[in-house]
Amino acid sequence: MNARMELCFPLGSEMMTTVRLTTGGMCALAGLDLDTSEDCKVCVTESLLLLLHRGFREARVVFSEENGLRVAVKGEGERKEAQESAEDDISLALLGALAGEVAEEKREGVLVALSFRFESK
Amino acid sequence: MTESELFREYRETRDKALRNRIAEKYLYIAAVIAKKFVGRGVEYDDLYQVASLALVRGIDRFDERKGLQFSTFITPTITGEIKNYFRDRSRLVHLPRRVSELRALARRTAEEMLSESGKKPTASELAARLHVSEEELLHAEEAGSVVSLDAPVEGAESEMSYYDAIPAAEDMYERFETKEAVLAAVGELSETEREMVRLRFGQELSQAETAKRMGVSQMYISRMERKILEKLRKSLKEGSLE
Hints:
The complex is a heterodimer of chains A (about 120) and B (about 240). Chain A is of the alpha+beta class and about 120 residues long. Helices cover about 35% and strands about 40% of the residues of chain A.
């Protein structure tokens, strides 16, 4: 079974527990170990933070089981005022350090989506 | 001074004061990354310390001529160190990383060789495939065998456990003498240094908490601690030679 799940939600701190729990569940389903699962949660949280700093107030996260887990995180809806942070570079570097195959999608120079994959060992 | 100028000067001079300035400037990166790993069973202070050490080591290795920003270079370094720390902590008995890696690799390779030829490889065949000596391979295999301290010592005539067989590290008289020597050495420190020793080693506070109580930076405490330990070491060494 190649499981797939989509979450669409308002980008707010109150949603983070739900997102992290869902991420953990999908990681378990994809056969990732606990450490990798924790890394995946960090990557999802950092991606959402990056989108929030670019003015998105809604996000969609798509999990697909592909020899591990592929996660796509997209900003949705209208963008409000962006507040890019000095820590964004660290977030991007952290994604690169934790996940394999990180891809960024930009529209008019603005980051609008990120995807990454974690392989099951 | 730009980031690139700062690192160029450090690369050319290796001036420790400059390295400390750079470390203080970028310590926030260690703090930011350490926070991301909170909640995995390790205190923030410990994570921050691991991250800070990685930062200082990273400063020595960073080459600004390669065109990378320091934050881009150091983030994977710090992340790697934190992950190594988690991995090392997860073992009851801490094995050196090389030994752990060789054990894991040997297990995987042995399975591969079994599926290739249909028979289990010998130690020498496995060592040859892994490009290590047979002795090194056997040492790595052996390192994983955890023995309970309550288990009986093999070959002992009575029912002696490994715990019984371990000699005491010191006797009470030695302990008393050591305490006296340490107290005398601490007495030679300045008032501020004694206060730091009291907080760090008496109350067992973290460097961050000690820094907060004394109204200084954690980096300052870290430097002071190194200096004090060096002083005490010297003082105790001289005392033991008298």
